[in-house]
Amino acid sequence: MRRAAITNDATAQRFLEQSVAAFERAVSQTCVREWTGILAGLPVRLRIAGDVCYPLVTRALAHLATPIASSAELTVRVWDTASTGHEMASPPWPREAFGPHGLVQGFNDTRFMTAYDLGTHALSLLDQVGGQALFWTQDATTLPPWEHAAPLKRILHRWLRSRGLQLAHAAAVGLSSGGALIVGKSGSGKSTTALHLLREGFGYIGDDYVVLARSPQPTAHSLYCTAKLHDATRTRYPHLLPVFDTPASSALPKVVAFMQADCDGPLLGDTPVQAVFLPTITHSRDSWIEPGSAAEAVAAIAPSTILQLPGAGQTDLTQLAEFIRLTRTYRLHLGTDLPGVAALIRTTLEEAGA
Amino acid sequence: MDRDRYRINTPQVLHEQFDDDVVLVNLENGNYYSLNASGSAILRLLANGLSPDSIEKQSSAAHAAAGSCVRALLAELLSEGLITPCDASEHIEVKEETTVAGLDLSTPPALQRFTDMQDLLLLDPIHDVDDRGWPSAINDGQHG
């Protein structure tokens, strides 16, 4: 089972308070660096202990950084033990509670989300009522590249979902006439399509994760300014090479690129989504597009989104399906002549928005 | 157990109904499924409280193969863990609008299974906990 009913709200509350106190002890010995920004229209504040964690968490969010006039709707405290020398509070749950897929059994309900990733040794804790969260790891320097590419993913997923916003495993690009959501499993051509469209004048929303809003119109919000590419693909996009985080990731099958507005085209905050595209790679020269179904699009976007996020479930599937129903779906058969793809998508977006 | 009534195996199975399809996701094994129009219609009837016998009897006049269609799909849905027999204690009320009228079995039910996301559900690494209660650091590479 991926879900567990919380057995004692007071225990979860007490653990949160102990964790915050541990964070405050850590910053009292080092320093606290603050980051503020607007995520999917919502003001967020990060309080980060020390200099080690700061770039690891904020680099992928750099394009969303801005002073916030009002108080933050979510404050996330971030720290690690290795760089601050301060221990985290002991967990109030037994060893057996470290459940499958990261959920801590008995400490998840509509208010609290508690997940511990046994692969990266990172704790994600969210209190929906208090509007606060905490991300702690034993040693931030050991976090793998995909955590740098999508920091705080588990916390943001649950927090955004409670506001009707859906974190989705998809790419998105935009034009002034509207945007395209590109969905598909690894190897389907999702990143290839998105990165090619950037070269053809489309603006960047996201390559791997975006935030979807259904109202007032279907919209894709940018969250992370990163792209994950297979090592072999990088030669196709030499203009991205200067921003590859090569030393940390070169031994891995995917490398992380941090997009920068000055060399990768416009980074957009959001775009209205006119159409959803499901790419498949063909061996033909030409590319072509044909209408697809909403069910196909949901089958392409929902499993990979839900299975990668602890605690994701029926609410996520329903929100994704409701979003997809508001747009048109097209199958995109990718030929070897990539320049033709941009023209196809431009035309389709114009027709879909007409 | 009432072995003749079934429900979708929530919460580990997610489902979303479209006009002519159902998409299902099994969180236990990472498989996901697409069910065609006739299969979706049968699943909806089952989930609304009709027994397989009822569906078969009510639709056999129009479709000679109704019985085999329903039984084959039922076996497949059970085998994949997508539905489960209702407990004897569950109150089963057939919704008024639930009827086999309009059930079109000219195309037999077809359940498509996709297994390519299973690796997202790799077993969590074996771990121990330190004296503070946190898992010991093990430098594995299973996620991502």
What is the multimeric organization of the chains shown? heterodimer
Query: What integer value in Å does the Rg of chain B equal?
Result: 20 Å
Number of strand segments of chain A = 17
End-to-end Cα distance of chain A, whole Å, is 45 Å
Low-confidence stretches of chain B: 140-144
| Element string of chain A (H = helix, E = strand) | HEEHEHEEEHHEEEHEEEEHEHEEHHEH
What does this 3D model show about the protein?
The complex is a heterodimer of chains A (354) and B (144). Chain A is of the alpha+beta class. Chain A contains 11 helices and 17 strands. Chain A has helices spanning 9-29, 50-58, 81-84, 145-149, 153-161, 190-199, 246-249, 261-264, 294-306, 314-325, 339-353, and strands at 32-39, 42-49, 74-80, 112-117, 122-127, 132-137, 166-169, 171-175, 178-182, 203-206, 209-213, 219-222, 226-230, 254-258, 270-281, 288-291, 328-334. In chain A, helix 9 runs antiparallel to helix 10. Chain A is globular and about 60 Å long. The termini of chain A are far apart. Mean pLDDT of chain A is 88; it is low at 246-250. By secondary structure, chain B is α+β, with helices and mostly antiparallel strands. Chain B is 23% helix and 20% strand. Chain B has 3 helices and 6 strands, in the order E-E-E-E-H-H-H-E-E. The radius of gyration of chain B is 20 Å and the shape is elongated. The chains are: A alpha+beta (354), B alpha+beta (144). The A-B interface holds A 1-3, 87-88, 90-91, 93, 95, 98, 100-102, 116-121, 138-139, 142, 144-146, 185, 252, 254, 293-296, 298-299, 302-304, 306-308, 313-314, 317-318, 321 and B 10-12, 14-16, 18, 20-23, 25, 27, 30, 32, 34, 114, 116-117, 120-121, 123-125, 127-129, 132-135, 137-144.
